[in-house]
Predict the structure.
Amino acid sequence: MAEYKYGRMKFYCDVHRCINCHGCEVACQEGNELPLGINRRRVITVNEGVENKEYSLSISCMHCTDAPCAQVCPVQCFYIRADGIVLHDKDKCIGCGYCLYACPFGAPQFPRDGAFGIRGVMDKCTMCAGGPAPTFSDKEKRLYGQNRIAEGKVPLCAAMCATNALIVGDAAHVSDIIRTRKLEMGHGVPTGPYGWDVAYPNK
Amino acid sequence: MRKFILTLLSLFLARGVASAALPPPDIIRQQLVGSVPHYYVWGTRFVEFQTSYFKIVYILVIGALLAGFFLHYIIFGPKRFEEGGKKIKFFNVFNIIVHWIAAASFTLLIPTGLIIVYAKFFGGDGFVRTMRSLHDLGAALFAIVLIPLFAMWVKDMFLHPNDFKWLSTGGGYFTKQKIETGACKFNPGQKFWFWVATLLGAFMLATGAAMFFQQFKQGIFKYQIDLLRFAAIAHNVAAVVILAMFLVHLYMSLFVVKGSLRSMLTGYKSEDEVKYLHSSFYKKYVEKQDK
């Protein structure tokens, strides 16, 4: 039996297209019903205020290769799916915060929990792939948010991105899209509105 | 004056409750632009320490110490002293209370800390999460007792010329005979343990508090996350020293020097014990009695 070759799921944010609208942040927060103050996805602006050098991009858990969070976790509650999505088990997590210290992107966050408002278990982007709880169960929805990957849909943030700056999918496809965009940049751009010359043939 | 202090205290508490109820200012997010390329300074360092050293070092230290204690007990055995004789007052009631609160905080902190380090072995979930809360509770207890503990004994804890005699005889613990060790009220081993418990303890408290609160204004590191990474490394490194000294302290007081547990409960040591183990103190004590 031939071995099935899985894709490698990746996020890519095209900084030439991102318009700093924070739509991905809001979509993720509302769609996954996250607690107050938790942003799985964040839009940041680099070189803010510097002319011609300013650009924005959206970052969250990048689902790293050899994810450092998974390496440092004392409970080893992380697991990496065959398609590269890094997920964690909230039932095992003890909220120690080590994954946050290991993460280059500040992705792990800790909602306050219980009567004394102590730090609860970690919450991070799941690439809308749910968690270890049974797929489509209420528990999965409550703890990890929607499982859109299992439904065959694109994660919420990328699905709503108005300029298609944020794209997600198999690494090969993502790089194809980016390559096409780079090659076509500045080519085939129409010089007038569509249908203008039909309506006003005499100019 | 009392009213003023009470008002201040209640204001402080109210502020604490209010700040705990509000979602914290997301400092890490605000600093994300700079801290992502800065990852290779402290981030990789933390990952390296956590993945390759901490778990091994703790088990090695505990194993080596337990083996050492076992061998020492078999070869040299415990120190027994005549209980019948005169009793010499060593600790007052304040000393005893402060010591046992500190002892309670350490017995809470050290096992729970180890359970957090070896969380996978204990399965994570609610048990380890409760232990993490107890770890915070122990830290609060230690924070209360740290200053009295430091203040009440610090004057006896500086190195004294007599201490070199104690060091040269190995404290009298590496022989079966009872020998006069030349120690004052506290021997150099106790002095070292005192400085480890208070100064390193305060450092543990500071780094632990940093990791507990996570989001607060600080001016030591350029990025908040780097402070947290440093705190996690430093907390673990300092914990190795504290763990080792705590185990030594337990072994000495429970197994080697018979009657030391009673002296910490009643405040009195037997004359025979003081004569040998704290001989400089004993000489001064006898001179005082003669006058």
